[in-house]
Amino acid sequence: MATPLTGRVAVITGGSRGVAETFRAQGAVCAICDRGNAAHQERDRERPQGDLVMTLDLRDPMAVDVFATAVEERYGRVDILVTSATATTGAPFESVSARAERALIEDNFIQVTGLIRRMLPLMGDGSAIVNLVQDEPCHALDAAVKAAVESLSGSLAVELAPRGIRVMAVTVEQAYQLWWSGIPSV
């Protein structure tokens, strides 16, 4: 039985387990990368044949290139790219060090732009980029980084529309509501 994403290739980063399960349930094959959580990745390795699971740090451009090359060799394309910009400082502005601030920007913005840039050559008409953002940032720097990803998404949506690539920034909760309601926009 065909489902909405049968035969589609979804590339999913960070915190990928639940998102990947959602896409698999809709018929997609998944290429997943995460820099940690070996237990989740071990479970993902036992998922349907055809999935790709790699442990890597998306802040490292060489690691991103290795992952993108593996995706290209295995699937030849990316239909849906899901990035995760959901890390937070969890602290008020004045208590966040400059180092922690740079790490937040690396985790939530630089790795997103780097991954999108590298995956774009594999994306064509009808593909989509979904940037997951924090549900409700409660601190200044968290809100600023969320706003940066949302602004990037809006600008990329305009820039990539002529190529038939849709771009959106959504919270994790909004994403699940979208995906479980029949995936009309992806």
What are the salient characteristics of this protein?
single chain, 186 residues, alpha/beta, six-stranded parallel β-sheet, 6 helices, 46% helix, 18% strand
Beta strand %? 15-25%
How many DSSP E strands?
Answer: 6
The biggest beta sheet reads: 6 strands, parallel
Separation of termini? 19 Å
Q: How do the helices and strands follow one another from N- to C-terminus?
A: EHEHEHEHEHEH
Proportion of helical residues: 40-55%
Overall geometry:
globular
Structural class: alpha/beta
Mean pLDDT: 85
Supply the number of helical segments.
6
The rounded Rg comes to 16 Å
The largest sheet has its strands arranged as: 3-2-1-4-5-6
Can you walk through the features of this model?
The chain is an alpha/beta fold and about 190 residues long. It starts with 8 loop residues before the first strand and ends in a 6-residue tail after the last helix. It has a 6-stranded parallel beta sheet with strand order 3-2-1-4-5-6, sandwiched between helices. The protein has helices at about 15-25, 40-45, 60-75, 100-120, 140-160, 170-180, and strands spanning about 10-15, 30-35, 50-55, 80-85, 130-135, 165-170. Helix 3 runs parallel beside helix 4 and helix 4 (about 100-120) packs parallel to helix 5 (about 140-160). It is globular. The mean pLDDT is about 85. It has 6 helices and 6 strands. The chain is about 45% helix and about 20% strand.
